[in-house]
Design brief:
Length: about 230
């Protein structure tokens, strides 16, 4: 089991993160599950085979100390970390007169600052190891402008971080992949959307990127439901 790769996932308690954890274990990986919801993480870890296969860690991605501890505990427990999926994030209503400014700040802190901290926490280990894979959850909204969407602006930032990180590590074997889903039926939405992707559809896209041989770096995966044209 010691030679089985280890994937760290933030935002792992539900949606895309939880679905990716399930697929990763199915693919023979071990996973570190990070989120603010400790109870749900423990339940999911148990479902995936217990601490030998899935380690739950309570983590607020906006806290640098939590992100450092996440990587340290992953390495202490599994003695390796092969990939880091910076997936934590949430949205807001469109319209610059909607939502509270407090909600805006929390979203920006999580989606942008939290993502940057994940990159920083993982990158030192990957540079030392001269190997690794950073995966970032951006969005279709990070490729096009949505009217009144501050969420879209945060995902443009994630897309930019992915491109900037790829340029920084271009002379190394470290891989960087942007996952850009369209509409997904996850807890992101208050009302269940019709015709949306399922979380597992995105999880399978993540696994496609992770399953490539060492000389192949999948830079971006844009995945949308068949009826979403924009």
């Amino acid at each position: 089991m010691a030679d089985e790769p280890v994937l760290v996932i933030t935002g792992a308690s539900s949606g895309i993160g939880a679905a990716t954890a399930s697929r990763a274990v199915e693919f023979g990986m071990r996973v570190v599950l990070a989120a603010r919801s400790d109870a749900r993480l423990s339940e999911l870890a148990s479902e995936l085979g217990g601490r030998e296969r899935a380690l739950p860690i309570e983590c607020d991605v906006t806290r640098w100390e939590d992100q450092q501890a996440l990587v340290e505990r992953a390495l202490d427990h599994f003695d390796r970390m092969d990939a880091f999926f910076a997936n934590a994030g949430f949205g807001a209503q469109r319209g610059f007169l909607n939502e509270s400014v407090e909600h805006w700040k929390a979203m920006i802190d999580t989606n942008v600052y939290g993502c940057a901290l994940s990159i920083r926490a993982a990158l030192g280990h990957f540079v030392d190891r001269n190997a690794g894979h950073v995966i970032l959850t951006s969005s279709v909204a990070g490729r096009r402008t949505l009217p009144g969407s501050l969420y879209s602006a945060t995902k443009w930032a994630v897309t930019a971080m992915g491109q900037a990180l790829r340029a920084e590590v271009a002379e190394t074997p470290i891989k960087v992949t942007l996952i850009e889903p369209g509409m997904v039926d996850t807890p992101f939405f208050d009302d269940q959307p019709e015709g949306a992707l399922e979380a597992d559809d995105v999880a399978r896209a993540v696994m496609f990127a992770l399953a490539q041989p060492p000389h192949v770096d999948v830079n971006e995966i844009l995945v949308r439901p068949v009826n979403q044209s924009g």
